[in-house]
Amino acid sequence: MKAKPQNPAPADAEIRKAIQPVICYPTDSLTSPDMALYKAAPKTIELKEVITVPPRDACAFKVAAGDFFRIVSVEGPQVGDLNLWAQDDLSEKFYSGKTRALHGTHLSTGDRMWSGFPQMRPMATITYDTLDWYGFDADGGSVHDVIGTRCDPYTNQLLSGQEYHHCCHSNLTRALAVETGLPLREAENYVHDVLNVFMCTGFTTDTHQYFMKASPVRPGDYIEFFAEIDLLGGLSTCPGGDCSSQHSSDLVACYPLKVEIYRCDPNILAAWTAPKRNDYSRSHGIS
Which of these, 10, 139, 245, 255, has the minimum number of CB atoms within 10 Å of its CB? Predict the structure, then answer.
């Protein structure tokens, strides 16, 4: 939030402000996901596993490359924080900032979740979203954001002076530690910024601060992903519930979420290949 300016505007201020913006990362050259394939494949899928994530907690899950997974609202309006890692290398993890730069502040069908450097490749593709009808509302809010981070005990301690252990950061840390056997503090180093599934967010028009409002999600809604590589996922049911009032507390109603993992008919995917790691030489200008 920028403070009240201390310097007068120059004479050509309006001319400078009127310069037209340029898209930082035009995506015309990106290989587009084969959405026809991703739409046809679910007709052949069979349910492989269901994981129920309790309120104010998190669970880890594995999805093989070529399988689908869904995050499903089952009892009441509930936001979830999603982390993704490569199964064979936890250092390859979802990069929300670059995903935002490529696809925008909120994700939906056809957008991809990209891993960080140096691998930088699609980890998962969103193939169906029952909340795609929401678009952007009058406040500039939309769902499934990559602008927030994850509620965490450190910011909560800073702002309230209180310790709270069921923030999404802590939930994901515990789940990763249990899944991998890593010590808690080592596991924490791999927890990263999330896809805020079902969360409705934006920026205020006056102060341009990050806001949240009641999620439109209802039981039966889901977002579906195709695993482009072998994935380890972590999903936290946010202690904010539908995030209509606050998070990082035990005061609001929270509900479970389900992760459904589906096996796809391999014949459907005969022409599909997993994305390779980024082929930048990593020389960084030194020969």
Answer: 10
Query: pLDDT by residue (tens digit) across 17-62?
Result: 999 999 999 999 998 899 999 998 888 889 999 999 999 999 999 9
Q: Residue 139: what residue type? A: D
Cβ contact 67:261 at 8 Å: yes
Question: Cβ(80)–Cβ(257) under 8 Å?
Answer: yes
CB atoms within 10 A of CB 10: 9
Q: What count of other Cβ atoms lies within 10 Å of the Cβ of residue 185?
A: 9
Q: Secondary structure of the chain: what % helix, strand, coil (to 5)? A: 15, 30, 55
Strands (E), 22-111: 46-53, 58-63, 68-73, 80-86, 89-93
Q: Tokens representing 140? A: 């500039």
**H helix runs in the chain, sequence order:** 13-17, 35-40, 96-103, 153-160, 168-180, 184-188
pTM beyond 0.90: the answer is: yes
Q: 176: closest CA among 161, 191, 164?
A: 191
Q: Which of 249, 244, 243 is nearest to 162 (CA)?
A: 249
Q: What pLDDT, in 10s, does the model give residues 160-204? A: 999 999 999 999 999 999 999 999 999 999 999 999 999 999 999
Size of the chain in residues: 287
Backbone angles phi, psi at 195, to 5 degrees: -90, 120
Residues 189 and 274 sit within 8 Å (Cβ to Cβ): no
Q: By CB neighbour count within 10 A (0-12 exposed, 13-18 middle, 19+ buried), where does 198 fall?
A: buried
User: Which is nearest to 276 in space by CA: 65, 43, 130?
Assistant: 65
Q: Extract the tokens encoding 90.
A: 């936890």
